[in-house]
Amino acid sequence: MAITIDGTGSISGLSATGISAQPVFPGNILRVVSTTKTDTFSSASTSFTDVTGLSVSITPSSASSKILVFLDLTLSATHNTTGVAIQYRLTGGNSANYVGDTGGSRTSAIAGLRTLNANAADFNYGASAIKATGIYLDSPSTTSSTVYQAQIRVNTATGYVNRSGEDFNNNEYVRGASSITVMEVAV
């Protein structure tokens, strides 16, 4: 096929069959998928539990692609006289690698919080809720659909997503939002 550009800048001899797909370069963002959760969730489980409505599915176009995961949680818990711990993590792909090393009876997670007692002025006392995040570059090595899911666990209380630990109906108490976003990155 011959392509001609004349003196006026007009192009002739070009057809749709002569145009190939856009080249993909390392670092290109190939697709973005996101889920936002605005309703509340609670769990009193001492095992990691899926946060309902806070997952996202992506099908990589190449097994060599990386998946960049952004997790954004609004967390709180009820308080008690002995203190409360709440932790969070991801599942999906190789996200099991995105937790701390095992150390005795300590919980492996992305991160967590522990209050001292019911009188401590910290994240779960009264109207407070905290923002918890995670950013992870995964290598799922697949072209199959991969689901990334947020999970939480607590020790002796109830953990919440998108609300404060106490939840009285006045403007001192918060309703928040959480999200999970994944991006396929070409390698």
Determine the mean pLDDT: 85
The biggest beta sheet is recorded as: 6 strands, antiparallel
Rounded Rg: 23 Å
CATH class, named: Mainly Beta
Count of DSSP helices?
A: 0
| Strand proportion | 35-45%
Cα shape: elongated
Structural class: mainly beta
* Measured distance between first and last alpha carbons: 32 Å
At CATH level 2, the architecture is Sandwich
Order of helices and strands: EEEEEEEEEEEE
- Enumerate the spans where pLDDT stays under 50 for 5 or more consecutive residues: none
- What is the CATH third-level topology name? Jelly Rolls
Overall tally of structural domains? 1
Give a verbal description of the structure.
With 187 residues, the protein is mainly beta. The chain has one domain: Sandwich (Jelly Rolls), CATH 2.60.120.760. Helices cover 0% and strands 42% of the residues. It has no helices and 12 strands. It has strands at residues 4-5, 11-12, 29-37, 41-43, 49-58, 66-77, 85-91, 111-114, 130-138, 146-154, 159-161, 178-185. Strands 3, 4, 6, 9, 11 and 12 form a 6-stranded antiparallel β-sheet that branches. Strands 5-10-7-8 form a 4-stranded antiparallel β-sheet, with no helix packed on it. Strand 1 and strand 2 form a beta hairpin. It starts with a strand and ends with a strand. The model has no long low-confidence stretch (mean pLDDT 85).
